[in-house]
Amino acid sequence: MKVGILTGGGDCPGLNPAIQGAVLKGIDFGFEFVGILEGWKGLLEAKTVPLALSDVEEIINKGGTILGTSRTNPFKVEGGPEKCMENFKKLGLDALIAMGGEDTLGVANRFYNEYKMNVVGVPKTMDNDLNATDYTFGFDSSVTVAVDAAERLKDTGKSHRRIMVLEVMGRHAGWVALFTAIASGADWVMLPEEDTNIDKMCEHLKKVYERKKTALVIVSEGAKFEGVEEEVGEKDAFGHTILQKRGLAQRVADVIKEKTKIEVRSAVIGHIQRGGAPTLFDRILGFRCGVKAAELVKNGEFGKMAAMRGKDIIAVPLSDAVSNLKVVDKYWIDLVKTIFK
Ligand code: F6P
C-alpha cells in the first residue's frame, strides 16, 4: 500500500513522533510512505517528499513537523476538493493519514464523507480542545513552556513589587491558561469560557498584593471581558481571527493598573509555546497515535481517528472529533478557583 501523511494547521511538539510512529508501524505492514508537504496545500499542489526509515528514525525529539504545515482549506479553493482527489490518484495513494486539529480533521472528515477518500486522522493541538480524545499531543509541551514563563514572571514581579500578566494561546478553549495557572500558582485566570468580571478580579488582586507584594494573572488569548471585542481583524482560511493582534495582555495590564493603581507589566509568549522538543508525554502520545493510525489503515478503518481514552489508544469516528470543541468545564473552573486565595 502507498500511504500519504500530511500535517495541517498550527504545528506543535509531538507531530514528528507521530510521523515516526506511523512510518515505523507501516514498515512492519509493508507500506510505502510519501510525505505531503504543508498540509492540504501539498495535496492541492501535489508537493511531496519520500518518507523512508532514514527520514524518520531520528525525529522523535524534534519540535515542529518535518513535513511543514499550512492553514490551507481546500474546500475554500475553487475546484480544490476535486484537485486533491485527482492528485491523490495521480500520486498512486491508497490511503492518507491526516494529522491535525479541528480544522484539518474537519477537512479529512469531509473528504471521507463527500469524496470517499481513504483517510484516517491523528489528533494534534496544543490547545487540547479536540473532542473524543482525552488529550492531544502538543498540549503538555506547550503548558510546560508556559509554566516556565509564568515562574520567571513571578520572580521579576516579586522583585519589583509588580502585578504581572501573561498571555498564552487558546482561542476557544482555555486549557493552556487553566493548566498554566494551576501549575504556576497564579492568582487569576481569564478564560474564553467565562466572561471576566474585571472589578472582582482587581479587588482580588489588591488583596493578594497586600500579602505577597506581587500577583500573577494568566490570560488566554480568547478571554472575554466587557469592552473587548471578540471577532475583529484579519482572519485565516478557516475563518478564525488572528487573536494575538488584539494585544490583550497589555489591555488587561492597563485596566488592572487603572483600577488598582499598582504597577503592572505584561508578556505574551505567543509562538514560543508551540516550538521546542516535545515533552516525554507528547513523544509517547504522538508515537502511539501514529502507530494506531497505521493500524487503522491496515484494517481499512477509514473515517476514523486515533484517540486517547484512559491509558488506551482507540479508534473513534472522525465525525465525533470534529463535531464540537472540548472546552473547559465547571469541574476545572471550580478547581482553578480553589487556588485564588
Ligand atoms: O493551533 C492553534 C493555535 O495555537 C491557537 O491557539 C492560536 O490562536 C493559533 O494557533 C495561532 O495560529 P497561527 O500560528 O496561524 O498564528
Report on the architecture of this protein:
A hairpin with a 2-residue loop joins strand 10 (304-309) and strand 11 (312-317). This protein is α/β, with parallel strands linked by helices and 341 residues long. The protein has a five-stranded mixed beta sheet, sandwiched between helices. The protein folds into two domains: 2-137 and 278-323, Rossmann fold; 141-275, Phosphofructokinase domain (Rossmann fold, 3-Layer(aba) Sandwich), CATH 3.40.50. It has helices at 15-28, 40-45, 53-56, 80-90, 102-115, 139-160, 175-184, 198-212, 248-260, 280-298, 318-323, 330-337, and strands at 2-7, 32-36, 48-50, 95-100, 119-123, 163-168, 188-190, 215-220, 264-268, 304-309, 312-317. Helix content is 42%, strand content 17%. Helix 1 (15-28) runs parallel beside helix 10 and helix 8 packs across helix 9 (248-260). The N and C termini lie far apart (59 Å). Bound molecules: 6-O-phosphono-beta-D-fructofuranose. 6-O-phosphono-beta-D-fructofuranose is lined by residues 9-10, 71, 101, 125-127, 169-171, 221, 236, 242-243. 6-O-phosphono-beta-D-fructofuranose (F6P) is lined by residues 9-10, 71, 101, 125-127, 169-171, 221, 236, 242-243.
